[in-house]
Amino acid sequence: MASGAFPRPSTAYRIADLAARDEEVLRIAEKRSADRQHAQGKLTARERVDLLVDPGSFLEFDRLARHRCADFDMDSHRPYGDGVVTGQATVDGRPICLFSQDFTVFGGSMGEVFGEKVLKVVDLATRIGCPLVGINDSGGARIQEGVVSLAYYAELGRRNVLASGVIPQISLVMGPCAGGAVYTPALTDFVVMVDGVAHMFVTGPEVVAAVTGEAVSPQELGGAEVNSEVSGNVHYRARDEEDALDWVRTLLGFLPANNLDGCPVYDSAGAPALTATDLALDTLIPDSPHQGYDMCRVIHAVVDDGDFLEVQKTFAPNIICGFGRVDGRTVGVVANQPLHLAGVIDIDASEKASRFVRFCDAFGIPLLTLVDVPGYLPGVGQERAGIIRRGAKLIYAYAEATVPKVTLAVRKAYGGGYAVMGSKHLGADVNLAWPTAEIAVMGADAAVTILHRRALRALDGPEREAARQRFVADYRKRFATPYAAADRGYVDRVIRPATTRIEISRALRMLRDKRQETPARKHGNIPL
Ligand code: HXC
User: Fold this and answer.
1) pLDDT of amino acid 1
2) Which terminus of the chain has fewer CB atoms gathered within 10 Å of its CB, N or C?
3) 187 close to ligand 1 (CB < 6 Angstrom)
4) A GO BP term, please (predicted)?
5) 461-479 and 444-451 are packed helices; what angle lies between their axes, rounded to 10 degrees?
6) CB distance 201 to ligand 1 below 6 Å
7) Which residues touch 262 (CB under 8 Å, ≥6 apart)?
8) Residues 353-404 pLDDT 10s
């Protein structure tokens, strides 16, 4: 009887009903979203996903999830998806999990259902072992949902931490990212920000003005420029959203899916004989020790096709970090850059390189270190800001790393700089040096000033200068070479610069199956 009064909906009706729900999400809501986002020069959450992943590969989850909040009249508006698009897809045929916040729904803010959706993909990425990409464009914790929103941020942070070193985690910041919400991108391995539209700060300009009296715009406080050049929170400052997503696709191509997986291997085009680029290395080092040169030329000569993806390019440019391939296999390159501050290690350089080294080690990516370092940066500012504690991070990172480590001393390798930049003593497997390497406690001028102070003080005018020059020449000849280190086996091979690419390729091939165990422990205690 009941079935006559309320006929069971037909299968055709049910299929049409599903289509209507999908229509609401994918066309009607998406159109509303596009109108609002495009007016602000931004793409929609779905357009961003489309640009990131392989066409047709996106498998969306929880498209029809809706919030359960009744406060603030919220139950009158329950849009599908709850302000975040989540799912699984492929990039260049390799799986990723992703979420993309939709600023046009409750400001892309995190509520309970939003949080459940995000946690589901983070958990899935960790379980199946694939990279997680999070696209951020949000007003932060959903004010209407109160403490529940905060709980989900903390839950997400906990999962980011548990996934750290297990799967690569990449964040894109494409709109606002404020308050405690900044800490979820900050906990991930790489952060990409879009210039001009995105901003990221713990407290916004209004609170800053009220508390400290400082007047500052959102861009000045937390735009892509300041976060990539000054604070170091950001690894790539993108021109626009397409550029940001393109960079992430390229980055993913260098990385393994997880810590137990290998990096993708590409066909190698490495020439067996010396090329013109190789030969040019023979004349790269200027005869004057005070003259700089671009370390990128060495990197480009070594990596396949000169293809190098630099991370944090504009932060601490005195040290270069990035990914390339040798024989088609990913390497992480750390190199001093003599063109900036003579390649000295300061606090920022130490922290930048330490984090990079630890990422490579966590994901089994061999490390190639190119050295031209006059030492740690002297100065009251550096000492007071903690160069002892913060400079120690780099020693910790290198010493802890068990991946294949190949180091090449190009020119200066002085003092603490020598020790820390992938020295044999911190566990490098193969140490190479060019004949132009100067491996010593310090440079000739500084050494002579200390060692011969008394003798020089006893002389006057031209005699003093002539003696100083003699002492400097003598020191250079005896100590500013790779041979004292080679004498003791601290350098395995002194090589002609032109053979660098071939030597490094042989060393990395030899180390391909390296295994190194370390004592069991809960975790170390890196100086933070
Ligand atoms: C609910 C929000 C929201 C939020 C924005 N909206 N933020 N809804 N919760 N947190 C809504 C707005 O009400 C508005 O809805 C729509 O999103 C667009 O917001 P506008 O203010 O019109 O946009 P805009 O002028 O571009 O300003 C963007 C903004 C601003 C700078 C992000 O909205 C803002 O300051 N929001 C609050 C940011 C904040 O303080 N969040 C809490 C951070 S603390 P309508 O319906 O009008 O379109 C945090 C704790 C994390 O996140 C804890 C970690 C442990």
Assistant:
1) 45
2) N
3) no
4) fatty acid biosynthetic process
5) 120
6) no
7) 256, 364
8) 999 999 999 999 999 999 999 999 999 999 999 999 999 999 999 999 999 9
Q: Which atom from ligand 1 is nearest to the alpha carbon of 107?
A: 17
When the candidates are 3.40.50.620, 3.30.70.3040, 2.60.120.650, 3.90.226.10, the CATH number that belongs to 15-254 is 3.90.226.10
Q: Is the CB of 140 under 6 A from ligand 1?
A: yes
Instruction: Tell me if 189 sits within 8 A of 248, measured CB to CB.
Output: no
Backbone phi and psi for residue 287, each to the nearest 5 degrees, phi listed first:
-70, -30
Place of tokens 């690419």: 501
Best mutation site among 32, 73, 103, 106 for ligand 1, i.e. most ligand atoms within 8 A of its Cβ?
106
**Which among 37, 71, 78, 109 is the best mutation to test ligand 1's pocket, defined by most ligand atoms within 8 Å of the CB?**
109
CA distance 246 to 114: 26
How far is CA 475 from each of CA 184, 207, 433, 444, 447, rounded to the nearest angstrom? 52, 58, 19, 6, 8
Q: Is residue 83 in contact with ligand 1, taking CB distance under 6 Å?
A: no
**Centre of ligand 1 from the C-alpha of residue 92, in Å:** 35
Q: Rounded to an integer, what distance in angstroms lies between the CA atom of residue 424 and that of residue 239?
A: 40
145 CA to centre of ligand 1 in angstroms: 13
For the CA of 40, the closest atom of ligand 1 is 26
Domains 15-254 and 276-441+480-510 share a fold: yes
Q: Please state whether beta strands 236-238 and 59-61 pair in parallel, antiparallel, or not at all (unpaired).
A: unpaired
Whole-prediction pTM: 0.95
Tokens of 379: 């100065």
- State whether the beta carbon of 79 lies less than 6 angstroms from ligand 1: no
